[in-house]
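in:
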């Protein structure tokens, strides 16, 4: 390795070491002790590079030492190499330049899962199930998914050539597509479930989430929404300011949303709601899961602590460490933990990480409200909501009502892992190009599916297939999967998800809880305005 990289690598390590002293672009002076430690470190790296039994680069030695240093801090402080740093910044943007397709690997081939409506891919007629065999003449068989995405993205207005293999056609299709701005939506779905229930799924928190949620609520309200189901399952978080902006739309003016506490003066912050949004004033149920983390937990915690919605599902992840991202030389970055999140009632969101194995495997999950006797609760971990309901700290958000997810039958999991429903549905959609939204699969379609699965050597025989789908529940769910994938191919992702929502036990159970959410809202309205005797209206759910 050239001395230039060695010096640059050591400088990078020193920069990481000093980041604890960077505030207002001022760097703390090196003490004699720090100089001594850095001198020893430089000697160590040089000796390892020159004398280790096998060849080892300065890059790998310094990178390993950085990772080792950060590992002594917490699970979420991380050194971001240039590629990872750029990818993180891209994910936080509201859009990117590309074709507008969701892609994945199916049977080792780069496959279009669905084109996004209104994008270049959709306008050019790309379809779900198309295989992208070449990009700019280069075969995709040797490309990773990330490599393929990198080739398909590019500056707005530039062109990319792709070769498509489509089911039912002998010859491949050549497309030259002009890249355009593709919205990177964090509100995945916003639609009505029945006449009065709005459904809102938020996947993460990027720079446009607040505006997206505002637009979605407006759309649902205009469609007649009188109660709202917010789905935060597997929402891993994102930008703090966006979770605050979304919480602002659910809370009354002046309510505390979240508090951050750290070591420095700037890390102590309290965020309150404004009066910028109209009062929602309808029953709200929020669905959470183990994958709900960070900014999503801030939203769920604020809604729960102020009693403006009912939290249901399973305990959330418990990620309450605030990362400040610093730019380093050579386009690298550092996500450094600088504070912790606390909910309005004072609960610490962060779960214990003294054992990183337990933390990574969720072995030390949070308490469940109502499942622990009062004598067993450590008083400092007991907090009160605005209405005096008990909620518990110690990490994560414990749901008001616990709903365990149900396991999918093993044979259905096997078919899903082989992309059987997707592939069969692409075939059916190609055979029925004029399919309508009223289409419903029949039991006879399962017989056709069984024959197809045997032909494709996914199962050994029709009898094995029938044994795998012996129960009525498994057969019904298989039909739902086929139905959803056919609609994905014909009408897009939202049409697919609407079908799946009908068979999602957590969503269906949540819809039954609007009576309790309505009572909670009525109690809140009573303490805000004692003269208010209005009871929130619960609509009929279809």
């Amino acid at each position: 390795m050239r001395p230039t990289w060695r010096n640059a690598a050591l400088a990078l390590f020193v920069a990481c070491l000093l980041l604890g002293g960077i505030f207002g672009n001022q760097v703390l002076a090196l003490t004699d002790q720090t100089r001594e430690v850095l001198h020893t470190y430089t000697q160590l790296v040089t000796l390892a590079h020159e004398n280790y039994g096998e060849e080892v680069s300065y890059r790998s030695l310094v990178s390993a030492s950085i990772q080792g240093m950060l590992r002594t801090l917490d699970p979420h402080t991380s050194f971001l190499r240039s590629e990872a740093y750029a990818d993180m910044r891209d994910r936080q943007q509201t859009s990117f330049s590309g074709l507008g397709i969701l892609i994945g690997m199916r049977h080792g081939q780069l496959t279009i899962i669905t084109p996004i409506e209104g994008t270049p891919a959709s306008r050019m007629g790309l379809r779900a199930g198309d295989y992208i065999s070449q990009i700019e003449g280069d075969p995709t068989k040797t490309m990773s998914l990330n490599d393929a995405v990198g080739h398909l993205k590019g500056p707005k207005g530039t062109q990319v050539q792709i070769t498509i293999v489509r089911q039912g056609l002998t010859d491949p299709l050549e497309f030259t597509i002009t890249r355009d701005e593709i919205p990177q939506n964090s509100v995945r779905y916003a639609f009505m479930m029945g006449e009065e229930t709005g459904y809102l799924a938020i996947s993460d928190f990027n720079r446009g989430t607040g505006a997206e949620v505002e637009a979605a609520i407006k759309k649902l309200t205009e469609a007649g929404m009188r109660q709202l189901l917010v789905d935060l399952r597997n929402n891993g978080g994102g930008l703090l300011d966006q979770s605050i902006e979304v919480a602002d739309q659910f809370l009354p003016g002046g309510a505390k949303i979240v508090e951050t506490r750290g070591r420095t003066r700037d890390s102590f912050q309290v965020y309150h709601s404004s009066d910028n949004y109209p009062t929602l004033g309808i029953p709200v149920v929020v669905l959470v899961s183990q994958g709900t983390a960070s900014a999503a937990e801030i939203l769920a915690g604020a809604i729960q602590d102020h009693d403006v919605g009912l939290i249901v599902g399973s305990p959330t992840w418990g990620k309450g460490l605030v990362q400040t991202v610093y730019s380093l030389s050579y386009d690298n970055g550092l996500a450094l933990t600088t504070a912790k999140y606390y909910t309005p009632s004072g609960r610490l969101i962060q779960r214990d990480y003294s054992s990183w194995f337990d933390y990574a495997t969720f072995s030390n999950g949070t308490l469940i409200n109502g499942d622990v006797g009062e004598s067993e609760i450590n008083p400092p971990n007991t907090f009160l909501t605005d209405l005096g309901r008990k909620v518990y700290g110690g990490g994560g958000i414990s749901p008001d009502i616990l709903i365990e997810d149900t396991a999918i039958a093993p044979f259905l999991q096997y078919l899903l892992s082989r992309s059987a429903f997707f592939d069969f549905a692409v075939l059916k959609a190609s055979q029925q190009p004029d399919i309508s939204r009223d289409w419903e699969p029949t039991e006879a379609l399962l017989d056709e599916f069984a024959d197809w699965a045997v032909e494709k050597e996914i199962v050994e025989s029709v009898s094995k297939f029938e044994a795998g789908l012996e129960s009525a529940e498994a057969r019904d769910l298989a039909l739902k999967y086929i139905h959803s994938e056919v609609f994905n191919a014909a009408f897009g992702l939202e049409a697919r998800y609407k079908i799946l929502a009908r068979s999602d036990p957590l969503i269906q159970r949540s819809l039954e809880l609007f009576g309790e959410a309505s009572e909670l809202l009525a109690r809140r309205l009573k303490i805000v305005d004692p003269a208010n005797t209005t009871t929130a209206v619960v609509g009929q759910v279809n």
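note: Residues 170 and 325 are 51 Å apart (CA to CA).
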